[in-house]
Amino acid sequence: GFADYLAETFDAQFSIEHTREFLDTVPRPIVCGTHRVDSLRGEIEVEGLSFQYPGRNGFSIRDISFRIAPGEIVALVGGNGAGKSTLAKLVAGLYAPEQGVVRIDGTPLGEYQFESIYRHMAFVFQETARFEATAGENIALGHVEELWEQQESIEAVAGRTGVDELVEKMPERYQTRLGRLFGEYDLSGGQWRRFSIARALARDPRVVLLDEPTANLDAESEYRFYTNLIEQLRGRTVLIISHRFATARLADRVLVLEQGELVEQGSHTQLLARGGIYAAMYRRYEQTCLLGDFAETRFREGA
After folding, report:
1. Is the pTM of this model over 0.90?
2. pLDDT along the chain (303 residues), means of 10
3. Whether 210 contacts 239, CB under 8 Å
4. Beta-sheet pairing, 253-258 with 73-77
5. How many whole angstroms separate alpha carbon 280 and alpha carbon 264?
6. In whole angstroms, what separates CA 296 from the centre of its chain?
């Protein structure tokens, strides 16, 4: 009726305003350098990093500095809006900082020829890519030069990353077409994310950034997933962003963000002993898990 027409008109106008705002945005240039590399040690240095989103008041990231040693696995934790994903995209070179610098193996990220350095780096962000292709092709796209139409190599990557257990349940295994538009078999958000991690590790990268890789998993499944994943990541330099704590217990070191600032860092055990912000966050996490277990038990008992 008329009310539905008005609602649709309002929604259309809202979308148009967003489109105009997007088209009016002046992109901040990210300079691509000329330095090329054949390999990386994997050292990450962040010095004095600050970032402000266009049109917003205040910095989302303020004066953050830390170092990740080659081969170290570091977890980045903090509440919603703490700046974790923003920091990850700055380290990846997807955003240009207002102040400060990110160095990889001692060289500022902006001085690298991006195609050269990104051959040795892999990123999995919250916005998971979903390719309308077969299960095998969804893995092969992580390293097309080596994996395309190489079935044994694709299956090897799937086995290393645990995706093979998903594929075995599909009607045509690696030939199953995935997706909603042209595919015959769709995946859950968590399953698509596992494919994206398989693609990320297919190239055998030296540096890996994972942003909320276990979203949509329960606590027990998350811990099992991380235990397997950490084994795949050993020897690489890894920054894992998570709002949950299975990561922190398994990582070599934890960085704690609060309102865009780095407020604590240390191992999981050290931070618990310190009794600061991280310890308080962990206590709340444990209480939430206990309440969840209690509610599930009561539900099963029919209480």
Report:
1. no
2. 58 54 52 81 95 86 95 91 90 90 94 88 81 88 85 88 88 87 77 86 89 64 69 87 77 93 94 93 77 42 44
3. yes
4. parallel
5. 12
6. 29
